[in-house]
Amino acid sequence: MCGGTASAFHLEEPIMPLVNDIEVPITREELPEGQFLCEYCTAKCCRYYAFPITKPKTWKDFDYIRWFLLHGKAGIFVDDGDWYIQVHADCQHILPDNRCGIYETRPQVCREYTTDDCEYDVDSGHQMIFDTPEQIDEYAEAVLPPKKRAPWQQTRAKQFNLPMAVR
Ligand code: SF4
Ligand code: SF4
Fold it and tell me: What's the pTM value of the predicted model, to 2 decimals?
């Protein structure tokens, strides 16, 4: 074997541990003392924001949610029965190495967030997630009584139900 130059055939991808089917540089248990999990993360929690919304109860409520989802870059999740909208958008202060560019003046919500239950090694721990308008429609159909037709739709339906004239 010749020495000196590294051939592409000798470069091996590092084997990353799998946790919950997600590849992570190290597991939580492997975190060396004095280091922070965030140092091994791609700033997953800085790439979206979320806020609570009223739990939908009517077709109209669900139609609003469908409208959110039609815009893409948005998702709905449910935790402990509470509903949230999640907007997938990177914070403009994530540095190329995934650190915070405004660490000293970062918002309070960032200060209060901890690694304890964070998404470092999970895609989501949410009770329910809806990413597409079709998913929320399907859910609404399962939990709500059938949609009432608008008056004009009922009139048209009646018209179509009239017996055809026989000559
Ligand atoms: S809190 Fe968790 S998700 Fe956020 S950067 Fe740190 S390890 Fe990643
Ligand atoms: S301000 Fe810093 S900690 Fe907060 S979301 Fe942006 S990059 Fe992350």
Answer: 0.76
Whose CA is closest to atom 5 on ligand 2? 46
- Residue 2 located in a structural domain: no
In a domain, 61, yes or no: yes
Distance 94 CA to ligand 1 centre (A): 12
Asked if residue 141 belongs to a domain, the reply is: yes
Determine the distance separating the centroid of ligand 2 and the alpha carbon of 103, expressed in angstroms. 7
Question: Ligand 2 atom 1: the closest Cα is on which residue?
Answer: 106
Residue 5 lies in a domain: no
For residue 128, what are the domain limits?
17-146
Over the chain (167 residues), what is each successive 10-residue block's mean pLDDT?
Answer: 43 69 88 94 95 96 96 94 96 97 97 93 85 96 84 58 50
Q: Which of 31, 46, 118 to mutate to test the pocket of ligand 1 (most atoms within 8 A of CB)?
A: 118
| CB atoms inside a 10 Å sphere around CB 132 | 13
The domain total for the chain is 1
